[in-house]
Amino acid sequence: MRMAFMVLQVIASLILIISILLQSGKSAGLSGSIAGGAEQLLGKQKGRGYDAMLSKVTKIGAIAFIICSLVLVYLQG
To answer: Whole-model pTM?
Structure first.
């Protein structure tokens, strides 16, 4: 049981790392200029859909990570 939650926590942490790194920042420096050209070509809705999807994935990953952490602390004691 404990090992299963440890594996889930590792998976959740990897999802968090990847989803956070793929998100565009508020300043949108070099990545914003690259994405800006893509938005002109593909339309602005696709950029917002991609960012919204990454935001949802980040929230789900964070919730899974917190729940796994709490369960592991409970199983430890």
So the answer is: 0.70
